[in-house]
Amino acid sequence: MSIIHLRQLSKQFAGKIALDGISLEVAEGEVLGLLGHNGAGKTTTIKLILGLLRPDGGEVRVMGQDPARPAFRGQRRHIGFLQENVSFYDQLTGAEVIGYLARLKGMPPLQGMTLLEQLGLKEAAGRRVKTYSKGMRQRLGLAQALLGEPRVLLLDEPTVGLDPLATQHFYQQIEELRQRGCAVILCSHVLAGVEPYLDRVAVMGQGRVLAAGDLATLRAQSQLPVTLTLHGSNLQAALPEQYRCLVQQAGAGHIRLQARPEQQRVLAELICCLPGVEHFHWQQPNLPELYQHICYGAADGHTTDYCS
Questions:
Q1: For residues 214 and 291, what is the distance between their CA atoms, to the nearest angstrom?
Q2: Cα–Cα distance list, 271 to 254, 256, 259, 274 (Å)
Q3: Does residue 229 share a domain with residue 199?
Q4: Residue 133 and residue 252 share a domain
Q5: Is residue 27 located within the same domain as residue 7?
Q6: pLDDT per 10-residue tile (average), the chain, 308 residues
Q7: Which end of the chain has fewer CB within 10 Å, C or N?
Q8: Are 135 and 157 in contact (CB under 8 A)?
Q9: Could you give the C-alpha distances from 274 to 33, 70, 106, 252, in angstroms and in order?
Q10: Which helix (H) or strand (E) holds 103?
Q11: Do residues 275 and 255 both lie within one domain?
Q12: How far apart, in whole angstroms, are the C-alpha atoms of residue 216 and residue 243?
């Protein structure tokens, strides 16, 4: 069931097109990666979902309602939002900030303190925010976004400034929310870092959705090559003639081959028939490669012919 529904949204600012007929849906318990370069339209889309802007055309529905209407006010407590550059009242302590924001959201301040503890800010809760590092401010921002166990969570570069352990803990919390049905939209430029946590991806450019789907769908659409790396002894000498056009790299103890997706069976046959193979590794196109292809196409303007 879709909890966020965007249909044919358009938006202009001073005659400049920010969104040009985008349509997206996000289901309960789904994590959508909303990706795109600066100026692609991601922030405008987020503001429309939050009800901070009204579209010039199209329809926005969040939890079945228009978020820009006064009647939606009672639903706002179920939305969590973390912007990229988070800021708070520097003279307040972390405990005061989270307590104040909890009360604004109709939640007990104790929940805010629990979140601070979960995010490693328990010892700093009594310190003024002006003494916090960038990572600590980011964790305070995450705590306020998670107040009230939101049904919709909008995150813009949420792990900036977090150390690896804090980042891992953050994604564990996101998984717990997802399991409870929370819909998450995550914007990030750290594509390799977010790839394992996304159910689907929507790539935006010039105010339009350029591509959307899970990674398997995007790989099938892109037709980018798959890579097989074989490790063993005397592989290059033993390689049959019909496979040599697939070789991209060869060295001592390994060879690397690339082929079109539909040629994976050919590579699988090679594993079976080539003597000396000790182990092998398949590599599908990753999210950064798919993003590059969707936004810019082949870098050299043509595709490689893999033994066609």
A1: 13
A2: 13, 12, 14, 6
A3: no
A4: no
A5: yes
A6: 94 94 96 94 95 96 95 90 88 96 90 91 95 91 91 92 85 91 95 94 96 94 91 85 85 87 84 86 93 77 50
A7: C
A8: no
A9: 40, 68, 66, 16
A10: helix 94-104
A11: yes
A12: 26
Helix (H) or strand (E) holding 17: strand 16-27
Contact 199, 171 (CB under 8 A): no
d(CA 129, CA 88): 7
Dist. CA 281–CA 196, nearest whole Å: 18
Compute the distance between CA of residue 39 and CA of residue 206 in angstroms, rounded to an integer.
Answer: 7
- Phi, psi of 229, rounded to the nearest 5 degrees: -110, 125
Per the structure block, which two tokens stand in for 121?
Answer: 């800010």
- Choosing from 213, 241, 263, the residue where a domain stops is 213
Domain holding 265, by residue range, is 223-296
In degrees, to the nearest 5, what angle opens at C-alpha 136 toward C-alphas 132 and 138?
A: 120
Three-state SS for 118-170 is: HCCCCCCCCCEHHHCCHHHHHHHHHHHHCCCCCCEEEEECCCCCCCHHHHHHH
> Global pTM?
0.87
